[in-house]
Amino acid sequence: MADEVLHVELVAADRTVWSGEATMVIARTTEGDVGILPNHAPVLALLVDGVVEVTTDQKETWVAAVDAGFLSVADNRVSILSEHAEMSHEIDLEKARHDLERARSAGEQDDEAEEAVRRAQARIRAVEKST
Amino acid sequence: MAASLRQLRGRIRSVQSIKKITRAMELIATSRIIKAQQRAQAAAPYARELTRAVSAVATFSNVEHPLTSEKDNPKTAAVLVVTSDRGLAGAYSSSVLRESERLAEKLRSEGKEVRTYVTGRKGVAYFHFRRRAIVDSWTGFSDTPTYDDARVIADALLETFLAEEESDVAVVDEVHVVYTRFVSMLRQQPTTIRLLPLEVVEGTEPPEEHEVLPLYEFEPSAADVLDALLPRYVTSRIYFCLLQASASELAARQRAMKSATDNAEDLIEKLSRTANQARQAGITQEISEIVGGVNALADATAGSE
Question: Which 8-state DSSP code applies to residue B270?
Answer without folding.
Answer: H
